[in-house]
Amino acid sequence: MDSIPANRRLWNRISSAYQHEHDPQIGAAPRLWGMYSIPDAHLHALGDVTGKRVLELGCGAGQWSRALAAEGAHVVGIDLSEAQLAAAVREMGAARYPLVQGAAEQLPFAADSFDLVFCDFGGLSWAPPHLAVPQAARILRPGGRLVFNVASPWFEACYDEAASRVTTTLQQDYFGLNTIAEGDGATSYQLTYGDWVRVLRGAGLIIDDLIEPRPEPATPNGYNETDPPDWARHWPAELLWVTHKP
Ligand SMILES: C[S@@+](CC[C@H](N)C(=O)[O-])C[C@H]1O[C@@H](n2cnc3c(N)ncnc32)[C@H](O)[C@@H]1O
Question: Which keywords appear in this protein's UniProt record, sorted alphabetically (predicted)?
Fold first, then answer.
């Protein structure tokens, strides 16, 4: 299915409210991963990016991109939504970096262009992974890394649509997650653990780690209500894949 037009419309529509609500958390400090703002210094997913060619896939307002640019990376941010890219322009710091409008499933870059492709709930949550992962692998140089954070199947399977919160009851079929309707045709994507492994290996990538970020006690979830509030202390809310191209 082609979710590009509907996802673009969705993010153009919600960008302003989304940034108003979430930018203070996402951009509170450099290199914060996911729903619980866990510092990369605790997870060690990205490593040193100085001098590296880095692509943020679905960069949104570029909170990550501007932090890595300030560290000396040669960053490019790509996003589908012009409203999100406008937010990235507004929030760009002293270290300027280029922004590109485009889709993770149709990346407009040559092969071997980047040392690191990464995202945090970006293009690999909002584009079909069986299309976006091979695209990311294509534009990496040999030895380059694809690192990305997505919601876990546990989180999605326990999400109670009617109550708008994550619970301790399985609400949806694990094998039926696949696509998640976000309204008006917009779609996000979720694979089973096995399908992620197959998609990554099928694109020729080596899986180096699967980090399951676990928040410190009493860390609030800035996006979703969970019941109990410390749900993510008990089950993994996110999957942070660390892979490289041989
Ligand atoms: C949740 S934001 C991720 C950005 C940032 N890390 C954040 O948490 O706000 C998701 C971003 O993915 C972008 N997006 C949606 N579909 C996309 C696609 N097919 N290709 C690239 N970006 C896409 C949206 O416009 C949005 O900026």
Answer: Methyltransferase, Transferase
pLDDT, position 93: 86
Q: Is the CB of residue 77 below 6 angstroms from any atom belonging to ligand 1?
A: no
Domain residue ranges in the chain: 4-244
pTM for the full model?
A: 0.97
Residue 118 Ramachandran class (φ > 0 left, ψ -120 to 50 alpha, else beta): beta
Percent of the chain exceeding pLDDT 90 equals: 98
Q: How many residues does the chain have?
A: 246
| Contact partners, residue 184, CB within 8 Å, separation at least 6 | 6, 9, 10
Q: Are 117 and 198 in contact (CB under 8 A)?
A: no
Crossing angle (nearest 10°) for helices 4-26 and 82-91: 30
Query: Residue 159 has which token pair?
Result: 């999400």
* DSSP character string of 200-220: HHHTTPEEEEEE---PPTTPP
Q: What pLDDT digit, counting tens, does each position of 87-114 carry? A: 999 999 899 999 999 999 999 999 999 9
Report the relative pairing of strands 38-39 and 32-33 from DSSP bridges: antiparallel
Is the model's pLDDT at 1 over the cut of 90? no
Amino acid letter, 209: D
Mean pLDDT, rounded, of the chain? 97
CA–centroid distance, 57 to ligand 1, in Å, is 7
Domain 4-244 has CATH 3.90.190.20: no
Residues forming a β-bridge with 76 = 55
Q: How confident is the model over 121-133, as a mean pLDDT?
A: 98
> 11 CB less than 6 Å from ligand 1?
yes
Q: State if residue 128 touches ligand 1 by the CB under 6 angstroms criterion.
A: no
- Torsion angle of the four alpha carbons 212, 233, 126, 133, in this order, in degrees rounded to the nearest 10: 10
Q: What is the DSSP letter of 229?
A: T
